[in-house]
Specification:
Blueprint: E1 6-11, H1 21-31, E2 43-47, H2 53-62, E3 66-70, H3 77-87, E4 92-97, E5 100-102, H4 106-111, E6 121-128, H5 133-141, E7 154-156, E8 163-167, H6 168-173, H7 186-195, E9 200-210, H8 216-243, H9 254-275, H10 283-306, H11 308-314, H12 317-321
Parallel strand pairs: 1-2, 1-4, 2-3, 6-9
Antiparallel strand pairs: 4-8, 5-9, 6-8, 7-9
Helix pairs in contact: 5-9, 5-10, 7-8, 8-10, 10-11
Length: about 325
């Protein structure tokens, strides 16, 4: 099986409100891949000032296969991703985040479908690190889907930029959007790609664990903004379709979306208990975390309906550095 040339792009925007040890853990997990990361043409860490210079230097000494690309402070999440993609020359660009832990077979599983020339976009399966009651409550409430029953790649309507690979030609034609009035742009990007006729594949064997929010402020703002995006992004998708004289995608009705999310939350809890039955004992501690997340999601969705710009205007600087949204834009 012949794989195309590939490069990895790891951004640090998520570290603005997270534990800096996460970047070390990310690089350690990449160094342990079944497909050696040294086979990549480049591994680029794109930083906009969120990681202190001495920390970056220690990482470069420990992982000599990493190249650091520095961009101005304030460069947002999606902009960091695209800057890294534009700086490499390989056929396939693999995106990872600096606060995720990638399982040993992740890279090999993510790249294997590209042995078929018709495959252009492959996303992996992301979940939240669910060790402990707090993280389990976060994992249940977040929007990452429950583990799939499929054993091989299947088509999907979404991907997460912490765990996805593109052929360069796709990003050259339809780059990751930025400077839109939402927190994360992957849903908008996925809709644009599908409308242009691209098929998005998900590879369930390409698994990563995302860090949970670090502290109450990070927790609150993450779920407020996720709730906000759940309302605002479908509107942006519809507006973009109309501007291009396309029929808007048929979006899920709000009630159906809530049902889907509730089903995913339940499925994730069942899977955690199946793997470790003793977790039943921690449910009284999990419930308040889950309830708080639901409350913030709901508040964010309401804000997205009635006053979306106010919520984005109120975002703290650390969250704003991790985003390419620009409050007040249309």
């Amino acid at each position: 099986m012949k794989l195309p040339s590939f490069s990895l792009v790891v951004e640090t925007a998520n570290l603005s409100m997270a534990d800096l040890d996460g970047l070390r853990d990310t690089l350690e997990s990449l160094s342990a891949q079944s497909l050696p990361v040294q086979n990549a043409e480049e591994v680029v860490v794109v930083d906009s000032g969120d990681v202190p210079e001495d920390v970056l230097q220690r990482l470069l000494n420990a992982y000599p296969w990493v190249r650091v690309m520095r961009l101005p402070r304030g460069t947002g999440y999606e902009e960091l991703k695209m800057a890294g993609a534009n700086a490499v020359t390989s056929e396939v660009v693999v995106f990872a985040d600096g606060d995720c832990f990638y399982e040993r077979g992740w890279l090999e599983a993510l790249l294997t479908p590209f042995s078929e020339p018709s495959v252009l976009i492959v996303g992996g399966e992301t979940s939240v690190n669910s060790t402990g009651p707090y993280r389990l409550g976060v994992a249940m409430a977040c929007s990452f889907p429950a583990p799939a029953s499929a054993r091989g790649p299947y088509t999907t309507d979404r991907f997460h930029l912490n765990n996805v690979a593109f052929r360069r030609s796709v990003l050259e034609k339809i780059p990751i959007p930025s400077r839109r009035p939402c927190y994360r742009m992957s849903g908008l990007h996925a809709a644009t790609l599908r409308a242009a006729g691209y098929t998005i594949w998900r590879q369930p064997a390409a698994r990563t664990r995302h860090a949970a929010p670090n502290g109450f402020s990070h927790f609150m703002w993450c779920f407020l903004l996720f709730g906000h995006d759940g309302v605002v992004v479908p509107r942006l998708i519809a507006a973009e379709a109309r501007s291009l004289d396309r029929s808007p995608e048929r979006s899920r009705k709000a009630l159906n979306l809530v049902r889907w999310w509730a089903g995913q939350s339940t499925a994730k809890l069942i899977e955690e208990i199946r793997r470790e039955p003793s977790r039943m004992l921690s449910l009284p501690l999990v419930a308040p975390v889950f309830a708080a997340a639901v409350a913030f999601l709901t508040a964010g969705a309401v804000a997205g309906l009635v006053a979306p710009k106010r919520l984005l205007d109120a975002m703290p600087d650390d969250m704003l550095r991790g985003s390419t949204c620009r409050p007040g834009q249309n």
